[in-house]
Recover the amino acids of this structure.
């Protein structure tokens, strides 16, 4: 990925500055010509570090840093300072890590950086700001997620279902009761414990001066050394048969997410074999995937149908490429079926599982493999179109302990064979043991649950004649048996999710 | 052994110089080439330092604004979907296979005034893309069965969008605010029209015949290309495309004469949302009303406004408040949105918004504040030009409005010229009660 005008320095920087010793890691991606600069500060702690009963503490602390003030400036003052530069600072609290990203034109880098560093290193922690961001967090869970975002609700419900009792099992933003119980003193104590040299990591990208990194290291060298916030993860709970969670809320259409944990990540060679299979099966927001062509293209059931071999949130609008800075040590495979008319939801679940079974049993042909491999190598280059995105992928690669992701994709795919891909499919994917989360209309949950659990027929009808090949498949799909494990399945009202 | 197309990583553009305040220099720092073919098709090209990569856009200056016939709302968007259903030369599957073979990111979207088809791909795929794109724009062919199947995907898109109350608010606001103009309906269209789409196959052929014509389209290429080769290819592939004859007559609304208020109950869990629309000006790169409205939006509703400070930061009555008017070919709606934390404060919040607007009419913005706003707009624009796709998206916005990418430079020159008096003047002209439509969405009593 080297470009003549770019310098990459990814090292554990050790700098003596003003008598301070910095063990803060810094990742650099400098360009001599770029007019823009990105500063990315990562905290190696996330929702998995939330204390029991205080779920949401990590996210609330990050929000209060991002949307609060510094010791010298109130939040309103900070906003006013950033405004003429059109500079922005955002935060993203995830399960394993938390990131703060600042973007600025290089004309204003020094002043901007001073402000950004002060926000993170000497936050104001004002009680009024605390009340505001706490309200935002609770309202997000209580109203937005439960009420007005059925696709997001389906994905979060699947996550909670897959990782029940596991540190990944709450949302990145915590729970309603957890957030409610958090005090400003809790935030201050969490900040003191976590925001230390042992846990912070800085990334720089773009047109910043060559000596800029030393300024950053000097600043971060002044904060306490601290201890690493490592959390040991247990194995994800086993999936036994098909486990169904039906979530009820007023809904005009039904959103479906299904999946299971898998034990490969970007650090593993087999991940890249699985990546080719997944692109063939369900590449996000393209018409390449089997799922998209089967459910939308051939049957017109909904807007889109995709699959993933790692965490993928958002992506509801635009051409979203893989997320930045949401790495997990334990990943999962998932299928996302966008909302469909209620009468087609049961068929759609069967249709997706029918295609998954076919993938697992038949794998890819040599031609499908070659076409998909070529696509993924080229397409993945588009994901890193800006310095900011490249830095994000680079830091994620360091999290996983692997080479720069986009380069690794090309390197691994060049030597893959169709046998590698099909072996990875057989090893990591299955269509028999999976968790299914469905968002259905209020009052319809039990009826839907019973239809699926009892393997009731789910015929589909069309506005126009369809080819015989599709009708033949439909005849199988409409009665495809799903082995629902009733003991591990349930109907829940949305109001009970993410509560505690 | 296999070969990969020569996709090379994008590097950032050469240093971007911002013009000084008041400078008449162009805000858009790159060269814009424009060539018009004999059939009226304009080819706009912008060299950009992205070795091995091009963004290829086709801007069709047709959107939901063109849906003048009753029962046809949402059709421009539906037609966008049909454009992926193939031709005699490239079937739907062939089209997708070709895209896959070049590793392209390819999609489309529709709004009030245009439909945009966009591809981000390897520069050496230019001819392949032009072949595929020109073919479907001239020779689209699909069966009635495929047409009916795609209607299901449209309903699916409506379904996915409408779990958010904002879509319904937007729909109701427009429906109430406009009388006969086609901005009365959203780009998605009314649900009743979407449900009737499977019956509209014949109309879809008519729609293609009317609007997918060279004089109504602009091809935009940004990135790594050879200009002479680009023009030669354009002549070769688009040359046979024939001009159309249809002329559009969009109804003109009379001025609104009385305030409108809609209370909208919502079944699912939600905080109250207040939306207020004022009829505003059309986009113009020659007159000052629209640029002045954009600056007014910053004065009254940006995160640095007094209103935001009071309602969001200090009194914390709302989660957010925002207000702006999107650029549109015909007069649009300046729309204010706020989400109120407690239903009992809805009226208080409405009155605070009204007070802020009154102040904008009476009190000139300070020179320092105006300078900060103008600086914000320029840096915001500059920071959005960091890759060829973003540049193409930005420029296609101005192409849809006027057909001329240079509009971007003209409108930013106008921003520089706006005075405090201009802002007060548009506040007085457009922000009047009789010109206002309000939608208040609240959760139904019986909801969970």
């Amino acid at each position: 990925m080297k470009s003549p005008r770019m310098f990459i320095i990814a090292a554990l920087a050790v700098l003596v500055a003003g008598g301070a010793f910095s063990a803060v890691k810094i990742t650099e991606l400098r360009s001599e010509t770029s007019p823009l600069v990105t500063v990315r500060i990562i905290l190696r702690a996330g929702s998995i570090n939330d204390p029991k009963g205080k779920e949401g503490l990590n996210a609330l602390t990050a929000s209060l840093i991002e949307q609060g003030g510094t010791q010298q400036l109130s939040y309103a003052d900070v906003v006013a300072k950033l405004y003429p530069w059109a500079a922005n600072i955002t935060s993203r609290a995830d399960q394993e890590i938390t990131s703060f990203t600042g973007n600025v034109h290089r004309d204003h880098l020094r002043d901007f950086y001073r402000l950004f560093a002060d926000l993170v290193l000497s936050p104001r922690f004002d009680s009024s700001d605390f009340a505001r961001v706490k309200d935002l967090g609770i309202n997000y869970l209580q109203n937005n997620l439960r009420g007005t975002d059925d696709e997001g609700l389906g994905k979060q419900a699947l996550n909670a279902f897959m990782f029940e009792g596991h540190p990944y099992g709450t949302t990145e933003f915590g729970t309603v009761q957890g957030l409610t119980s958090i005090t400003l003193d809790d935030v201050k104590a969490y900040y003191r414990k976590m925001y230390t040299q042992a846990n912070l990591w800085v990334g720089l990208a773009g047109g910043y001066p060559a000596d800029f990194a030393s300024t950053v290291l000097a600043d971060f060298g002044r904060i306490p050394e601290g201890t690493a916030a490592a959390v040991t993860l247990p194995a994800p709970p086993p999936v036994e048969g098909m486990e169904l969670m039906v979530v009820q809320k007023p809904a005009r259409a039904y959103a479906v997410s299904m999946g299971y944990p898998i034990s490969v990540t970007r650090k593993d060679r087999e991940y890249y074999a699985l990546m080719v299979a997944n692109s063939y099966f369900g590449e996000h927001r393209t018409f390449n995937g089997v799922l998209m062509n089967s459910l939308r293209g051939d049957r017109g059931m909904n807007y889109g149908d995709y699959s993933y071999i790692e965490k993928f949130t958002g992506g509801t609008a635009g051409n979203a490429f893989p997320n930045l800075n949401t790495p997990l040590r334990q990943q999962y495979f998932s299928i996302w079926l966008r909302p469909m008319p209620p009468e087609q939801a049961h068929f759609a679940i069967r249709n997706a599982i029918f295609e998954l079974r076919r993938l697992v049993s038949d794998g890819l042909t040599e031609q499908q493999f070659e076409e998909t491999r070529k696509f993924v190598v080229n397409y993945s280059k588009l994901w890193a179109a800006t310095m900011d995105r490249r830095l994000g992928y680079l830091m994620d690669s360091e999290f996983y302990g692997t080479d720069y992701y986009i380069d690794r994709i090309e390197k691994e795919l060049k030597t893959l064979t169709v046998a590698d891909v099909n072996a990875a499919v057989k090893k990591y994917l299955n269509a028999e043991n999976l968790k299914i989360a469905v968002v259905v209309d209020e009052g319809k949950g039990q009826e839907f649950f019973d239809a699926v659990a009892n393997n009731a027929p789910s015929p589909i009808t069309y506005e126009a004649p369809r080819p015989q090949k599709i009708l033949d498949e439909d005849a199988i799909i409409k009665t495809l048996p799903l082995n629902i494990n009733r003991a591990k399945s349930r109907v829940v009202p949305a109001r009970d999710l993410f509560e505690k | 052994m296999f070969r990969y197309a020569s996709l090379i990583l994008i590097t950032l553009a050469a240093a971007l110089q911002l013009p000084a305040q008041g400078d008449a220099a162009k805000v858009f720092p790159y060269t814009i080439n424009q060539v018009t073919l004999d059939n009226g098709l304009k080819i706009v090209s912008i060299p950009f330092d992205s070795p091995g990569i091009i963004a290829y856009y086709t801007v069709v200056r047709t959107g939901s604004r063109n849906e003048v016939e009753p029962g046809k709302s949402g059709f421009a968007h539906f037609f966008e979907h049909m454009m992926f259903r193939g031709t005699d030369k490239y079937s739907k599957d062939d089209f997708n296979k070709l895209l896959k073979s070049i590793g392209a990111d390819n999609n489309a979207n529709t709004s009030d005034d245009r439909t945009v088809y966009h591809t981000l791909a390897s520069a050496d795929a230019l001819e392949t893309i032009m072949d595929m794109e020109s073919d479907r724009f001239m020779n689209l062919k699909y069966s009635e069965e495929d047409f009916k199947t795609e209607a299901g995907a449209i309903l699916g898109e409506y379904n996915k969008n409408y779990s958010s109350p904002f879509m319904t608010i937007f729909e109701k606001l427009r429906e109430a605010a406009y009388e006969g103009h086609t901005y009365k309906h959203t780009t998605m269209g009314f649900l009743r029209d979407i449900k009737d789409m499977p019956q509209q196959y014949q109309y879809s052929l008519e729609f293609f015949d009317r609007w997918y014509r060279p004089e109504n389209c602009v091809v935009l290429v940004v990135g790594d290309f050879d200009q002479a080769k680009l023009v030669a290819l354009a002549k070769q592939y688009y040359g046979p495309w024939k001009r159309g004859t249809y002329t559009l007559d969009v109804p003109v609304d009379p001025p609104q004469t009385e305030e409108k208020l809609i209370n909208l109950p919502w079944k699912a869990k939600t905080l109250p949302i207040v939306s207020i629309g004022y009829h505003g000006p059309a986009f113009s790169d020659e007159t000052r009303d629209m640029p002045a409205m954009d600056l007014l939006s910053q004065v009254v509703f940006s995160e640095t406004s007094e209103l935001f400070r009071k309602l969001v930061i200090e009194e914390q009555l709302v989660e957010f408040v925002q207000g702006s008017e999107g650029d549109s070919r015909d007069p649009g709606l300046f729309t204010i949105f706020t989400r109120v934390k407690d239903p009992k404060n809805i009226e208080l919040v409405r009155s605070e918004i009204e007070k802020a607007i009154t102040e904008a009419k009476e009190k000139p913005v300070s020179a320092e504040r105006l300078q900060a706003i103008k600086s914000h707009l320029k840096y915001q624009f500059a920071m959005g030009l960091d890759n060829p796709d973003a540049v193409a998206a930005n420029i296609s916005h101005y192409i849809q409005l006027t057909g001329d990418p240079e509009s971007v430079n003209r409108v930013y020159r106008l921003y520089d010229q706006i005075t405090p008096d201009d802002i007060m003047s548009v506040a007085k002209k457009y922000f009047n009660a009789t010109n206002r439509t309000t939608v208040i969405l609240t959760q139904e009593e019986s909801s969970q």
